[in-house]
Amino acid sequence: MIRKLLPENHILLAIDQHIDFSFVEEETRDLYSLHHGRPAYAPEQLLRVLFLAYFYNLSDVRVAEELRYNLLYRAFAHFSLDDDTP
To answer: Do you know which PANTHER family this protein is assigned to (predicted)?
Structure first.
């Protein structure tokens, strides 16, 4: 749904289509438990958030703030409109 609202030619959408961030799921599989602690964010989503912070030179606080209202960042990090963000 969010994708329909975004410019088709934005660099983040091109990066999303051409770079596979899913490798981090396999690399971190043994570090997460479904039965202990609070539910965690998906490792791929967190990697995407770190990418946004690096790409745009954002602090942790600023990238968290941007994820709350920036639809482009939410879409890139694979958060829906209903998802809580870090």
So the answer is: TRANSPOSASE INSH FOR INSERTION SEQUENCE ELEMENT IS5A-RELATED
